[in-house]
Specification:
eight-stranded mixed beta sheet; 26% strand; single chain; 194 residues; alpha+beta; disordered C terminus
């Protein structure tokens, strides 16, 4: 994703005001990520993911940050700015014929106020325009799953740690489909969130 989040595939060097539908979510923009953002985002990931990873027995102080560092891709990442402050990030990159939504974190004090929905709507409008399916994984029991379901994602597969979801272009919110089996290789590649 770029500060045109997905747009035409080109990146803008300026922050792009996002459309909002609520006074509660006014004042946010997406800007291009910079390599220098990696440590702030790694720390945000550790804070946001901690409760879910601890619940699953998977939290590790170093690993939770290092996984972000190892996969951080500034060219596919947008930084969520709320009232001028770095409040989160979202990454969308092409993988296996779809856009893969990952590293979607919002600082806890901004959660529950509609910002996540507003950012996700913007991302999905842009992938819909391009006719792209979007995939993601969320850890089992995460409250974020409800956000994704409200925006048309359905369960594609799951294992004891991860729920893999997908959303075809233009999908509206619906109930989750029955999970299907995915290969052990794919589970092994994607099933280590900590």
């Amino acid at each position: 994703m770029d500060a045109g989040v997905m747009g035409s595939g080109t990146r803008s060097d300026t922050a792009v005001p996002a459309r909002t539908t609520s006074a509660h979510t006014a004042g946010w923009v997406l800007r291009n990520a910079l390599a220098a953002d990696v440590e702030v985002i790694a720390e945000l990931r550790a804070v946001v993911m901690r409760a879910d990873l601890e619940r699953l027995g998977r939290y590790d102080e170093h690993r939770v940050r290092q996984r972000l560092r190892d996969s951080f891709s500034p060219e596919h990442t947008s930084i969520i700015m709320i009232d001028g402050d770095l409040a989160g990030c979202v990454t969308v990159r092409p993988i296996e014929g779809r856009q893969w939504l990952e590293h979607f974190y919002l600082a806890p004090h901004h959660q529950g106020r509609g910002f996540g929905s507003a950012v996700l709507r913007t991302v999905l409008e842009r992938t819909d325009t391009r006719g792209m399916t979007v995939g993601l994984n969320v850890v089992q029991g995460s409250a974020a799953r409800r956000l994704y379901e409200r925006h048309g994602f359905v369960v594609e597969a799951q294992n004891p740690i991860d729920v893999f979801m997908m959303r075809p272009p233009g999908a509206m919110g619906s109930t989750a489909a029955q999970p299907v089996h995915i290969s052990a290789l794919r589970q092994g590649e994607l099933a280590a969130p900590g």
